[in-house]
Specification:
The structure holds 2 protein chains of 2 kinds. Chain A is α/β, with parallel strands linked by helices. Chain A has 11 helices and 13 strands. In chain B, helix 6 packs antiparallel against helix 9. The chains are: A alpha/beta, B mainly alpha.
């Protein structure tokens, strides 16, 4: 079986608020899959359910072949959760945190000590290993948080907004770790509101909006769905005066420039490739009108179709 | 830095029976030892109260100078209450920080995290009780108890600590934040003052007397007092046992239900 995570029709409401409105999601084994969405889109709820902390109202999910609803304990043997919805023990030191987690995963004395030391070194916490976590910076804390999830081998790791609130350097350090997880063959489901993060790390991206997956594909595929390269003319303050589509070839670029000249426009000329931001904004631009009765599929339909990998 | 991080990870091993409880008990004991402020408060406050009652109010309450022998059993239970109340804050803190959710995603009986806090509270409070008893003996507390009565008195105090600790654990689970848990817990801490801990029920106004005589802490105090000082016990030991079993059962069931319900919610 090539899918590490298989989610079908997952629904969850809190009171009258429907947070997940039927999520289908497939994550290939050994891939990094990003779940992208703005605040309140349902990312954390989805991860919380997949990590067995909440029961879905409807739908099924299997994680590394274990069924979420009928055998949550088997799921727990196969997963680890880091991020927003998990935490570290602030009163203990990094080493004590790791050894506690090793103990809870069944490692004893020597094995627990060895693995704790390995992780402390690997995550650059050697100098702080004997200090209480209370004194750690946000970046150190997050690294320890991730280390606690990797004490024993698990096939699937959930990272719930792992870099939210981190400075750029800490973020890059964490990205390196996530890349090496992928090299190790671990499946990673990552939630993020940073498009750049999804672009950097993910093999596949699913965009979650109002509790539904509205688009899915590799970062490149998704970008292609919002269009081609554009030659833009901007004025002195960066306002776009005109955009001329182009195809990336030198002949195309020449044609675009000729067209701009024909319009008699002057200003700064830049070639802009569509970014994941464009995809995201195209799909989520209506999220401000929260709680209205609009059909969320209306503006997403064609993109979802274009980007989806045939299953 | 792209050295393998996960490829080298050992496989999870089978847990020995009791291993999870041992990990959580060790964790909570570490917390207790490191939370010096809470430990000091749990010991100092009852000691200060004892000194206050014996030296300041004691002369007025019992001009014979024997008040220390009356008040110490009550102070011991007051002390146990103070120490146990921090369990509510510890449990609520675990919930609020999210570490409880991390434990819930492990293939273990995560309820053991509460057991850890309860056992640590029991240990912490027995130590505090011993310190308070030591100070009491130093300022003239002269119990008449023999060895057997001492053992029974300590068992009674331990059962009281256990019951009230579970109650505070349930309060900690039921309330969202450590601050709220602290607030609710405070109400419980007031109960010993409205008992026979400091003055006999017969000295209270009649409307209060009924409450003081029938609230759960009074029979426990009277039992301990009777064991240590040889005062007549009457039905106090039976009543105390019934109350403690009832409180313990309620608190354990309540906290187990709350715990089972609230994964992933903060």
């Amino acid at each position: 079986m090539d899918n590490a995570i298989d989610v079908r029709g997952l629904r969850k409401s809190f009171g009258r608020a429907e947070v997940l409105a039927g999520v289908d999601l497939t994550v290939r084994r050994g891939s990094v899959h990003a779940l992208l969405g703005s605040n309140g889109a349902g990312k954390t709820t989805l991860v919380t359910i997949l990590a067995t902390l909440l029961r879905p109202d409807a739908g099924t999910a299997s994680i590394a072949c274990a069924d979420l609803t009928s055998d949550p304990v088997a799921v727990r043997r196969r997963i680890a959760l880091t991020g927003q919805s998990a935490a570290v023990d602030e009163v203990l030191t990094a080493e004590e945190n790791l050894r506690m987690m090793a103990g809870l995963r069944g490692l004893r004395g020597g094995a627990a000590r060895r693995r704790s030391r390995e992780l402390i070194e690997r995550f650059g916490l050697t100098d702080a290993a004997d200090r209480r976590v209370k004194t750690y910076s946000g970046g150190m804390r997050r690294r320890l948080d991730l280390a606690l999830s990797l004490v024993v081998a698990v096939p699937v790791v959930f990272l719930d907004e792992p870099t939210t609130g981190l400075d750029p350097r800490s973020r890059r350090e964490l990205w390196d770790v996530i890349r090496s997880l992928r090299q190790d063959g671990t499946t990673v489901l990552l939630t993020t509101q940073y498009l750049e993060e999804a672009d950097e790390l993910a093999d596949m991206v699913s965009i979650l909006r109002d509790g539904r997956i509205v688009a899915e594909g590799s970062p490149a595929e998704l970008k292609r769905t919002v269009g081609e390269d554009v030659v833009e003319v901007r004025d002195a303050v960066g306002k776009v005066l005109h955009g001329e589509p182009t195809d990336g070839t030198s002949a195309g670029l020449r044609r675009a420039l000729d067209a701009i000249d024909a319009h008699g426009l002057t200003g700064e000329v830049v070639v802009r490739r569509p970014s994941l931001d464009d995809v995201f904004f195209a799909l989520t631009s209506h999220t401000q009108s929260y709680g209205t009765t609009e059909n969320p599929d209306d503006h997403a339909g064609s993109l979802a179709g274009a980007g989806r990998i045939p299953s | 830095m792209s050295a393998p991080v996960h490829a080298a990870a050992p496989a999870a091993a089978r847990l020995r029976p009791g291993a999870v409880d041992a990990v959580f008990i060790a964790r909570s004991l570490r917390h207790s030892v490191r939370n010096v402020d809470a430990m000091l408060m749990a010991i100092l406050l009852p000691v200060m109260l004892m000194l206050l009652f014996v030296y300041v109010f004691g002369g007025a309450i019992d001009p014979g100078g024997d008040y220390v022998n009356y008040v110490v059993p009550g102070i011991i239970l007051l002390c146990a209450g103070f120490g146990a109340s921090s369990t509510a804050i510890d449990v609520a803190g675990d919930k609020a920080s999210g570490i409880m959710d991390r434990f819930r995603t492990l293939p273990i009986r995560s309820w053991a995290v509460v057991t850890g806090h309860v056992v640590a509270s029991l240990a912490r409070n027995l130590v505090a009780t011993m310190v308070v008893l030591g100070v009491a003996l130093a300022i003239g507390f002269r119990p008449t108890a023999g060895a057997g009565e001492w053992v029974l008195a300590i068992v009674a105090v331990a059962v009281y600590i256990l019951a009230i600790t579970y109650l505070f654990a349930a309060i900690g689970l039921a309330t969202g934040s450590p601050e709220a848990a602290n607030g609710y817990g405070f109400v419980l801490l007031f109960l010993p003052y409205l008992s026979t801990a400091f003055v006999g029920a017969e000295t209270l106004p009649s409307w209060l007397r009924g409450f003081a005589e029938h609230q759960p802490i009074t029979p426990v105090i009277e039992t301990v007092r009777s064991l240590l000082m040889g005062t007549p016990a009457g039905t106090a030991p039976l009543l105390a046992l019934a109350w403690m079993v009832a409180i313990l059962t309620t608190a354990v069931v309540w906290s187990a239900i709350v715990f089972a319900r609230q994964g992933g919610r903060r």
